[in-house]
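Feature request, filed as a ticket because there's no other form

It would be nice if the structure record came with a short human-readable summary line next to the tokens. Right now we just get the raw output. Example of a typical job, pasted below so the devs can see what we mean:
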Amino acid sequence: MEFRKLGSSGLYISALTYGNWITHGSQIESEAAIKCVKAALNSGITTFDTADVYAGTRAERVLGKALKGVKRESYELFTKVYWPTGQGKNERGLSRKHIMESLHASLKRLNTDHIDLYQAHRFDFEVPLEETLAAFEDLIRQGKVHYIGFSEWNAEQISRALKIQRERGYTQFVSSQPQYSMLWRVIESEVIPLSQREGISQIVWSPVAQGILTGKYKAGAKPPQGSRATDKKGGAAMISRWMRDDVLIAVEKLAPIADALGLTMAQLSLAWVLQNPNVASAIIGASKPSQIKENVKAVEVALDKETMSAIDNALGSLPERSAAETISPNPRP
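Raw output as currently delivered:
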């Protein structure tokens, strides 16, 4: 396993992060989830990412159970706050009240006394940014949070936050958690250049485009039974944007590129995002341990310029590149 520094901090994280967004507490049972966590640890992954909202808070509980007995200093634990965790008007967003209450609930579910990286899951348009950042700073000073980051913020939002942090002497953000893959490249034009200047690393989610880049889906054919595209608990909705024949036909063109390198298409996709110097880690999920063992091999792969160009040529104009696609909805509809 390769380890990379997270932004301008002194924290090292594994180049692959094990995430439990769709799997734990939802797609797979607790026992299978625990086996996947153990496989991740055995494969050298030390970084684990979750969120209070995943599977209605069940995902944090499963991850806490899976990590029980593992030396706390030997792994990095990340979680997030923003999305609704209850019906109340204050059980959502980035208000001081919700941040404090959500953090303490996450600590309890995860069976720990601190979070290594606490992240704003989206940008909250209704709460003063100063309030959000002050709450994060207090959690850091209390020792309950070591580092802070955000997910799916655009360049203007990031810049506003950094300005406040500098002016008030607050701890600066060190991470961004955006969607990023061969098919979704919206962070490249604005977020990554800003992040590089400001000492912020990317921890990217959906590096295989919800499974599209594995090559398992074929144009004109029904999705394989048991695949994410058939998961009505959330997976199918996310992957639907890519379930088009033009996309699937283009993705098939990646197969010869992967074959020539002795890689699976999933390994090629992971290796591709890890080539970006601003990416500290790529988040992977799994429904069975064998998937983790295969994906870890991507860390050892270096793609040359010819391969990167061949990938661009295969996908043509299909990848989404508009910075305007980084959107935070209102958590209080």
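Something like this underneath would help us a lot:
The mean pLDDT is 92.
Residues 3-211+264-307 form a domain with the TIM Barrel fold (CATH 3.20.20.100).
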